[in-house]
Amino acid sequence: MLHAHRPDAPPLSVRPQHAPPGGADRLPRHRLPDGEMDPETAYRVVHDELLLDGQARLNLATFVTTWMEPQAARLMAECHEKNMIDKDEYPLTAEIEARCVSMIAGLWNAPTRPDGEGATGCSTLGSSEACMLAGLAFKRHWEARRRAAGASVERPNLVMGANVQVCWEKFCRYFDVEARQAPLAPGRTHLDADSARPLVDEHTIGVVAILGSTMDGSYEPVAEIAAMLDALEDETGLDVPVHVDAASGGFVAPFLDPDLLWDFRVPRVRSINASGHKYGLVYPGVGWAVWRSRDALPEELVFHVNYLGGDMPTYGLNFSRPGAQVVAQYYELLRLGFEGYRRVQQASRDTATWMAARIAEIEPFELVSDGSELPVFAVRIREGETAFDVYDVSARLRQYGWLVPAYTFPEGLQDLAVLRVVVRNGFGPELAAKLVEHLGEVVAALSGRGAVGGEPTAFHH
Ligand SMILES: *Cc1c(COP(=O)(O)O)cnc(C)c1O
């Protein structure tokens, strides 16, 4: 968010118990205080002000991890001072990052090569940074191929669905690439082969397929999109690579949908990203980017720095980054193993599909997706029901403490307004049942029927 400079904002008050005798009971809100205060007072002021933040675990809007085991939190606290970039100073943190890359590349069925030139990857601050890096690799590759062919490197484009996460629009705008977005259509909430095909041309640096869509949790058909591009290459000679934005699905599909072809088993998939801080089960921010082979990553994008000791190749937009998140990712991978991750994600999917099915039984809701891909689902209000909308429902749910966002879909489905629920580790059947119950109460109140008439005033937990 961009923030205005506001030195004249009204002051912040300090509760009498917290202000030391003779200490200030007012603090400037938007201006650096002139002097110091004792650490306990500072802690109390900040701690108390945050009380009005929502309860993270009741935040069904976010994909990002809101609960970790205390052992993981302890490890993170032990590593807070470690900077990920200082590979020479913290060689074991660096080694742990390398192990994570390898484990994750294996999870995505990356090919290995005896010469060590097989899959390569890195940690990032999140999927957004990973997507920028993958997009840049596409752009440089396309330019190199065009230059070699004596063709123009102007007007590159990237093909994607209108449902992409904002990071792809950012990539395109920040790095001068045209974002070619396939509009959605009734009954189709994401990109597919037919909608992508007309957008691809010789200026296309790549196609982004999403596993799964932020809008409704549905998986885009990666193998089908790749097959369309294979046919296109046979017809025209155009060789267009695919990047899979598996921000969420990268840590779901390998465990729950082992037969789904979406990863490096699809030869056209050049690179994949995932957010360690979504279904990777780590607190924000850590992401992962993996390329099929070392040569998918143009050498000119890799910087070698020697001022930290040793020769360190780096590919990233950030320099300093927290090391704790990478250590926490390693903890989760080691702690849970394949079977542990499978059980955690299956529990989330079971909760999501159960809840979606119950909500579908409440008039006037209708499912847009059912939680059977990402443990995420979206519901709409059935056509013709006009007494209230999804925004009213979202606002009422907030009075119970639930954060369930309401929004409209992008181009092609702008009239589709939904509520979306993201089920994550730590959100179990008990809470799910409560949400369904409260949703029923909200609908009854909004339709002017049922027991909960009038304005709900109390906080029901
Ligand atoms: C969340 C998300 C992103 C951005 O990821 P961050 O880790 O928040 O930077 C990108 N793409 C998709 C599909 C996402 O769901």
TrEMBL record:
NCBIfam families: Glu-decarb-GAD (TIGR01788)
Name of the featured protein: Glutamate decarboxylase
Family per similarity comment: Belongs to the group II decarboxylase family.
Catalytic activity from the UniProt record: L-glutamate + H(+) = 4-aminobutanoate + CO2
Cofactor: pyridoxal 5'-phosphate
EC number(s) per entry: 4.1.1.15
Protein's GO biological process: L-glutamate catabolic process
GO cellular component labels: cytosol
Residue numbers of N6-(pyridoxal phosphate)lysine PTMs: 278
Region Disordered, annotated ranges: 1-37
PANTHER family xrefs: GLUTAMATE DECARBOXYLASE
Segments passing through the bilayer: none
GO molecular function: aromatic-L-amino-acid decarboxylase activity; glutamate decarboxylase activity; pyridoxal phosphate binding
This protein's UniProt keywords: Decarboxylase, Lyase, Pyridoxal phosphate
Pfam families listed in its UniProt record: Pyridoxal_deC
Enzyme class: lyase
